């Protein structure tokens, strides 16, 4: 049984002027436990919405979304929050570190809403990503690449079954982007977490053995629902 | 976890936290001061009777008589004859009667003529008699000797052996200086009563002082009275205050002082209203302070939500932050209160001799901080609701 299984997943947004806009319509998608998959898609193709639905940040209109044996579509918001806190790690393009928290505190936040804070584990993760000497540094005291590594450590803090990465190298230069991508893939392999990455960057996509075209997957592209 | 979030948010917004807590501290300090001074002054003034049950004086206002004879404020309503003093002194219901002759001053400090018995026999409070500081003694009738209250002696810089000329009248600007030279023979130990502000001399010294009306040399300003039993007070009250009489019998002293507070109760209400308004403004400052930073915090809140924080967690964190600001402010308010109340108490002591003890337990020390914390929480509800409603997906990241 796959770790993630999606069937007939749809999402529609209300238009500001009235009416509705269907942004996502994915008939079938599956990801095995521990697998690493890249989804190719240009901006505006619904990749982030897709990841947000998987993460439970958004609720689908219709369809089934089974993660780790639980159907997110049937869970209420609190249930999706808990599933996200315990099962998913999320790496954002803009890192999304809390500026008032140190590197260590940011990583601790990654586990705070799930099974609880394990400071030693948080520190070990930061050491693993090469920031063992930056535990007490605030994000503003770190370089862009270092901030990205904190975000990677945070995404792995709750020992997730699935790591979602949304254009994780989009804000990094080529060298740092490559290093960061290698790091994400390595630590996911080490922890056994599956990795689902979305990007439009061909260099990033080329690094993956398995890649799918999200634009082809999303049948809503070009359609408008009322 | 919520405590950690609260702590880190307070740390991140340290400046606004301090400024907001300071505004609450000022409001809390003001409220505590108004409340404590109000309640304690009412009870202390009502309990201040210098050990006497009643005052006998000339026909007039009971309140004026009590203020003049017990608190040494206001002017005397008039004199009574020596025969009236003898009448009350010999009355079987009267345990002790201490005559007073008032109306002179020294450098603005009031002089009271009285008898040795005041310091020898009277308990100014249950179980407490007047005592003299080391080297001092009571004055002797017939001598130009004085006993000085502790506060007056301290402020005038007098000690045993100091001398002075009494000044005629209550105003330092009017009247003239008497020829007689008085010598301080005793300084009273502090009593925390109006007696601490008075310069006491033998009764006939005031009555016969040069420049005073020789026809009034046996007259008195008032008589302080101890009764054998409280019931006698009602009987004397009916007898002496009868219509057409020439005397006023002020009994009981505590109730008459309470009348004063009833008359000025509007001042209490105004001060309480001001303190309440300040409290509401302080709560508003919590609301504005947190609400204004919500735009900047929305992203942080969305991140927390994306990491699995529930809506109620971020709601609780914002409300908790407001509560902590309220608590910090209320705690700092005690420091403001301690300073402010000490200042007010010093003024009351200087003006009346009555000593307040603001740090003595008062119920407002419990409900005051609770009210301010509650108001801060109320102020935090609006931004907390905003935090509760933060749209995670739209706030957290650009859509791709």
Q: Topology of this protein?
A:
The complex is a heterodimer of chains A (226) and B (400).
Chain A: E1 4-14, E2 20-31, E3 36-40, H1 47-55, E4 62-67, E5 70-71, H2 77-87, E6 88-91, H3 103-112, H4 119-128, H5 144-156, E7 162-166, H6 174-191, E8 194-199, H7 202-206, E9 211-213, H8 214-217
Parallel strand pairs in A: 3-8, 3-9, 6-7, 7-8
Antiparallel strand pairs in A: 1-2, 1-4, 4-5
Helix pairs in contact in A: 3-4, 3-5, 4-5, 5-6
Chain B: H1 2-12, H2 14-47, E1 54-58, H3 62-69, H4 82-90, E2 94-106, E3 109-114, H5 117-121, E4 123-125, E5 128-129, E6 145-148, H6 150-156, E7 163-164, E8 167-168, E9 182-187, E10 199-202, H7 203-207, E11 222-227, H8 230-240, E12 247-250, H9 253-263, H10 265-292, H11 294-306, H12 311-352, H13 364-388, H14 392-396
Helix pairs in contact in B: 1-12, 2-9, 2-10, 2-12, 2-13, 3-9, 10-12, 10-13, 12-13
Description:
The complex is a heterodimer of chains A (226) and B (400). The longest helix of chain A has 18 residues, at 174-191. A five-stranded parallel beta sheet of chain A has the order 6-7-8-3-9, sandwiched between helices. In chain A, a hairpin with a 5-residue loop joins strand 1 (4-14) and strand 2 (20-31). Chain A has helices at residues 47-55, 77-87, 103-112, 119-128, 144-156, 174-191, 202-206, 214-217; strands at residues 4-14, 20-31, 36-40, 62-67, 70-71, 88-91, 162-166, 194-199, 211-213. Chain A has one domain (33-62, 69-213): 3-Layer(aba) Sandwich (Rossmann fold). The model of chain A has no long low-confidence stretch (mean pLDDT 91). Chain A contains eight helices and nine strands. Chain B has 400 residues and is of the alpha+beta class. Chain B has two domains: 2-45 and 263-396, no CATH class; 54-250, no CATH class. Chain B has helices spanning 2-12, 14-47, 62-69, 82-90, 117-121, 150-156, 203-207, 230-240, 253-263, 265-292, 294-306, 311-352, 364-388, 392-396, and strands at 54-58, 94-106, 109-114, 123-125, 128-129, 145-148, 163-164, 167-168, 182-187, 199-202, 222-227, 247-250. In chain B, the strands form two sheets. In chain B, strands 1, 2, 3, 6, 7, 8, 9, 10, 11 and 12 form a ten-stranded mixed beta sheet that branches. Chain B has a two-stranded antiparallel ribbon with strand order 4-5. Chain B is elongated. Chain B starts with a helix and ends with a helix. The mean pLDDT of chain B is 89. Chain A binds chain B through residues 41, 43-45, 47-49, 52, 55, 57-58, 77-78, 81-82, 84-86, 90, 92-94, 96-101, 105, 109-110, 112-114, 117, 154, 158, 166-167, 198, 200, and chain B through 1, 4, 8-9, 11-13, 299-300, 303-311, 313, 392-393, 396-400.
């Amino acid at each position: 049984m796959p770790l993630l299984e999606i069937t007939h997943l749809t999402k529609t947004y209300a238009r500001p002027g009235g009416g509705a806009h269907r942004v996502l319509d994915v008939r079938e998608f599956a990801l095995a436990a521990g697998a690493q998959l890249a989804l190719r898609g240009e901006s505006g193709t619904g990749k982030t919405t897709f990841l947000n639905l998987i993460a439970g940040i958004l609720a689908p209109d219709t369809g089934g979304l089974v993660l780790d044996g639980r159907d997110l579509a049937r869970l209420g918001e609190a249930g999706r929050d808990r599933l996200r806190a315990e099962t998913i790690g999320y790496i954002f393009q803009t890192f999304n570190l809390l500026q008032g928290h140190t590197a260590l505190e940011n990583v601790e936040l990654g586990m705070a809403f799930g099974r609880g804070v394990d400071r030693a584990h948080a520190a070990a993760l930061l050491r693993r990503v090469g920031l063992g000497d930056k535990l007490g540094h605030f994000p503003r005291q770190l370089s862009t690449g270092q901030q990205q590594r904190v975000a990677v450590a945070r995404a792995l803090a709750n020992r997730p079954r699935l790591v979602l990465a949304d254009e994780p190298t989009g804000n990094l230069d080529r060298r740092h982007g490559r290093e960061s991508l290698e790091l994400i893939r390595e630590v996911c392999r080490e922890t056994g977490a599956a990795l689902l990455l979305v990007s439009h960057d061909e260099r990033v996509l080329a690094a993956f053995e398995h890649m799918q075209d999200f634009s082809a997957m999303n049948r809503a592209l070009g359609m408008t629902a009322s | 976890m919520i405590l950690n979030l609260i702590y880190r948010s307070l740390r991140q917004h340290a400046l606004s936290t301090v400024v907001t807590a300071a505004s609450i501290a000022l409001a809390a300090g003001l409220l505590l001061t108004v409340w404590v001074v109000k309640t304690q002054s009412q009870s202390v003034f009502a309990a201040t009777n210098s050990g006497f049950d009643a005052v006998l004086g000339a026909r007039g206002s009971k309140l004026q008589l009590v203020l003049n004879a017990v608190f040494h404020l206001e002017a005397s309503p008039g004199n009574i004859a020596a025969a009236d003093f003898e009448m009350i002194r010999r009355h079987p219901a009267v345990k002790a009667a201490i005559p007073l002759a008032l109306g002179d001053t020294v450098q603005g400090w009031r002089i009271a003529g009285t008898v040795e018995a005041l310091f020898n026999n009277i308990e100014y409070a249950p179980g407490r008699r007047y005592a003299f500081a080391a080297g001092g003694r009571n004055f002797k009738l017939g001598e130009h000797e004085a006993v000085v209250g502790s506060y007056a002696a301290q402020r005038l810089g007098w000690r045993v052996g100091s001398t002075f000329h009494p000044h005629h009248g209550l105003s330092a600007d009017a009247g003239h200086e008497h020829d007689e030279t008085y010598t301080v023979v005793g300084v009273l130990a502090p009593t925390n009563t109006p007696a601490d502000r008075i310069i006491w001399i033998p009764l006939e010294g005031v009555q016969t002082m040069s420049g005073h009306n020789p026809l009034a040399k046996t007259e008195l300003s008032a008589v302080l009275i101890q009764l054998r039993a409280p019931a006698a007070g009602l009987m004397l009250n009916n007898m002496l205050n009868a219509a057409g009489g020439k005397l006023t019998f002020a009994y009981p002293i505590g109730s008459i002082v309470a009348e004063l507070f009833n008359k000025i109760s509007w001042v209490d209400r105004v001060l309480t209203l001001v303190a309440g308004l300040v409290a509401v403004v302080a709560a508003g400052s919590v609301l504005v302070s947190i609400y204004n930073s919500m735009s900047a915090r929305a992203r942080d809140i969305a991140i927390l939500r994306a990491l699995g924080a529930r809506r109620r967690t971020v709601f609780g964190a914002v409300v908790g932050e407001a509560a902590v600001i309220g608590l910090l402010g209320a705690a700092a308010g005690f420091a403001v209160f301690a300073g402010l109340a000490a200042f007010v108490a010093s003024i009351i002591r200087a003006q009346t001799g009555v000593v307040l003890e603001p740090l003595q337990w008062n119920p407002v020390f419990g409900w005051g901080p609770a009210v301010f914390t509650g108001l801060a929480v109320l102020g935090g509800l609006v931004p907390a609701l905003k935090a509760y409603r933060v749209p995670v997906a739209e706030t957290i990241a650009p859509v791709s």
